[in-house]
Amino acid sequence: MAKTEDEQYAECMQRFIDFANSMKDEGIETRLVSAGLMSASAIYGTYAVAGNEGRLNPAGIEKMLAAYRQQLEQVQKAKAERQNKG
């Protein structure tokens, strides 16, 4: 049976986290791993929207910023909920 989009999303996210943790385990500072992931996300996000040679206009940048903000807020909300349960 084919995986759902949510399942594929969760697996992709976990693979990025696992890879980031492997870099940390190699001695790379977490701030550098995080910065590298953010840069890679910006590059790949631009590619996904505008293609390999394209770029985002200011409205496209704002859309990506809003999407990143939404993800960040969801993560923080989930962390707060886990802390309140524990």
The general outline is globular
By DSSP, the count of extended strands is 0
The fraction of residues in strands falls at: under 5%
Helix percentage: over 70%
- In DSSP terms, counting alpha (H) and pi (I) runs of 4 or more, how many helices? 3
**Residue-averaged pLDDT, rounded?**
95
Q: Care to describe what's here?
A:
The protein has 86 residues and is mainly α. It has three helices and no strands. The model has no long low-confidence stretch (mean pLDDT 95).
From the structure above, extract its key features.
3 helices; 81% helix; mainly alpha; 86 residues; single chain
In short:
By secondary structure, the protein is mainly alpha-helical. It contains three helices and no strands.
Q: Could you outline the blueprint of secondary structure elements for this entry?
A:
Layout: H1 5-25, H2 30-50, H3 58-85
Helix pairs in contact: 1-2
